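Reopening closed ticket. The problem is back. First fold of the pair:
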Amino acid sequence: MALPRLIFITGKGGTGKSTVAAALGHALARKYPVTVADIDRRASAARLLGVDLNGRGSAHVGKQLEVRALSPRAELESFIERIVPLKMVSRRMLKSRTFGYVTAALPGLEAFLMLDRLRILAEDAAREGGYLVIDGPASGTTLELLSVAGGLGALATNGLLHRLARELEKFLTDPESFGVLITSTAEEASVREALETASVLDRRMRVRRVGVILNGATGHSFSRAESELAATLGEHGRLMERRIELGAIAERARGRLGGAGLGLIELPMLFRASLGKKEIFELSQTLESTLAHL
């Protein structure tokens, strides 16, 4: 499977987006230069990779893996400084009341400029033969974010913003440049949201879906004979019953996600109290193997 240069990870809240971003970045970095970027400054993926950005914009994890934190406000300021190269003037613009009215009238401007920054970073990655992995927001927010280019392009019918909007729309719909990887757990609400997100991306936005990650997947851990013993084992039996229940829920999720033709990728349940570099390494090995087979 040929991956796009920018892989945008989203999904229902709590489905492990940051874990997947960190693991995927780690897996790809074994062969390619990779940047894992967080776009709301939580830096969760960086922490999972053992890096505390501590106010820094970026840091390296080994030779080929970089982690970055981006913010919409910073991209707005950078954009103004690019089109108004005199710093004194650009800073005065950013602080002015009139400029505040402009940004209020165009509420998607900061998000739009963030997307344009991701486009530039993806083009840089392509030139280096690498990849950009985005630890994105929840799926609802992501769909709003990805629709910003079309909305702003309709408002700005000419000039710089119009040109950037057209370039950004072309980028988002280019399957070699941009794709979305959706995370899901086996719970019904998460599976339903993953299916709805995939449908909107495909039918309404014409954005490539890289696949769906079924995160924390469990298998059938006990035979039928062992399962029948559960009722006689007290607390241990109840744990067995819970594992059997989780396995059945995961099997239903596999059926729904796989049956929808979404390119299902599974990451196992690790049964650890917390995740860190060791666990990310384990998951990255699973992802590397799965992507190679796909």
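Second fold of the pair, where the issue appears:
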Amino acid sequence: MSVEFIFRLVGMVVFAIMGAYAGLYLAAILKGPVDMYTLLLGLVGALAGLVLTPFLTTRPARTLRGLLGRISVQTLVAGLIGLIAGLIIAALLAFPLSLLPEPFRSILPFFGVLLFSYFGVAVFVMRQNDIFSMMRLNLPGRQSSSEDSQPPRDAGRTILLDTSVIIDGRIADIARTGFLVGTLLIPRFVLNELQYIADSADGLRRQRGRRGMEVLSQLQKDPTIPVRISDIDVEGVREVDDKLVILARQLRCPILTNDYNLNRVAELQGVAILNVNELANAVKSVLLPGETLLVNIIQEGKEIGQGVGYLDDGTMVVVEDGRDHLNSKATVMVTKVLQTAAGRMIFARLGREE
């Protein structure tokens, strides 16, 4: 039995009693049959309670819980401190305001509480990064160091992680380099999908899921990488990719992924994407026609006489007339560099053999 159903029953009883009392009152005014008015308005109240109770109780509570789940802990603490500061200022001003003539002595203290509470929360939330940075720098007994002078890594930024990028595994190495500035946020539904893959009957999918779990464990154990797992969810949406896009729009944060389809869908909806594959292609070495390099030719190419080798970063090198140099290293000269959706491909011809 769900909580909403229980609230519906309680609301139905409460509204039915209220309707019955309203029927008694109406019957007394109109001098009509008491039983009929009581029964009729009692049934109307029961129906109204059955329908309206969730919109007055569980639905607002669920919306408030989702809103609070999307707000960071730092923002909540800053808002609470601002509220306390505003209430203290309002309390200090309540006595002099109460000395004013009527009606100001009755109205102004109440408006002062509302006004200073609002400004306290607004100011502290707006300047939360500066306030917490000042508090960290002024802690007693804290010695200054070169690390203290640096700004915090997260800088208030959040990065959503997709299931595919966790399974990929490269995220751990990228995060350790310090290029990802912000807190890595893993929603609970992404973790559930990762667990579902790890429990799959397919051996390959199960292995990929377990590798993702290991990568996530490495990220959590590294103190230099801020990682947060949140119970935040998107109501009314089942697909994980759709939830990530909606969540990224609500939080105004990018999605870290290597999923091509998610990349395109997110771009169409104006969501920023950090694509690991694009990053990998961007950091590959730049080679120009005429440069020479050493390649280990390991297999035949599609065309007659071609050989294929790979650089250390995985870039494919197609060597003209390289078939006769299989399983050996050869010095080749670059003739053309082709950028494809799958990555960078280099065409070369043989130079002098090593």
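Update: turned out to be a display glitch only; the data is intact. The two ends are 76 Å apart (CA to CA). Residues 3-30 form the longest helix (28 residues). Please close again.
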